[in-house]
Specification:
Blueprint: H1 2-28, H2 31-44, H3 49-67, H4 70-77, H5 81-94, H6 99-136, H7 140-153, H8 158-196
Helix pairs in contact: 1-2, 2-3, 5-6, 6-7, 6-8, 7-8
Length: 204
């Protein structure tokens, strides 16, 4: 019995020391130390509700302190949602049950999606203007290649499908004109050559 009593006393003493460390860290306002002390205590006593309560409080204080940091405020001012998203995910590993973090992550995801869509719109608009400029300069082969480049990335871009059809129609017309001009000049020249030197031609 005395041995069990000593063990209980040692255990209680250890528990009191952990409680003292937690309370000291909490009182000092050192949220990092408060979190570490609470984690250490709950690791030693996993079923202790007092330590669990302290841990949740420490997690929340730690998260709030990080969310109010100058770094995150600067990122919010710059609307750097990709970096904010990464920071929120890291903080979530500290407090997985944080509803505040989960809401912030969802918001960041939405902002990133909107920004990505805006970038796509700008990209396609600039590409369209470039192709129209090439068409106006009669650089039809270059315009055709530019259309194929866009459509290789996204085959459902109706604007570029329409532009490609327009370019190819103009290329066909240009080819027909070139052929017409060729025959208008080549056939009379061949006739003159045949009249002057029929022996140069082989009859089939």
């Amino acid at each position: 019995m005395p041995q069990n009593t000593n063990q209980n006393q040692t255990k209680n003493s250890s528990k009191e020391e952990l409680l003292t460390q937690i309370r000291t860290a909490k009182k000092s306002g050192d949220f990092d130390a408060f979190l570490v002390a609470s984690q250490k205590a709950l690791s030693a006593y996993p079923s202790d509700q007092t330590f669990l309560s302290f841990l949740h409080e420490a997690q929340e204080n730690y998260i709030n302190s990080k969310l109010q940091s100058d770094l995150l405020k600067a990122l919010e001012d710059k609307q750097d949602y990709k970096t904010l998203y990464s920071v929120y995910l890291k903080l979530l590993t500290v407090f997985p049950d944080s509803q505040k973090l989960q809401k912030l992550i969802k918001k960041a995801e939405e902002k990133i999606h909107v920004a990505s869509e805006e970038q796509k719109k700008d990209y396609y608009k600039n590409a369209e203007l470039k192709i129209l400029d090439l068409i106006n300069q009669e650089k039809l082969p270059d315009a055709e290649r530019a259309c194929y480049e866009i459509l290789s990335q996204n085959q459902e871009q109706k604007t570029f499908i329409s532009l490609l059809a327009k370019i190819q129609s103009r290329l066909d017309k240009q080819m027909n004109k070139d052929l017409e001009l060729y025959y208008k000049t080549a056939i009379p020249a061949l006739n003159q050559e045949f009249t002057a030197n029929p022996s140069n031609f082989i009859r089939i």
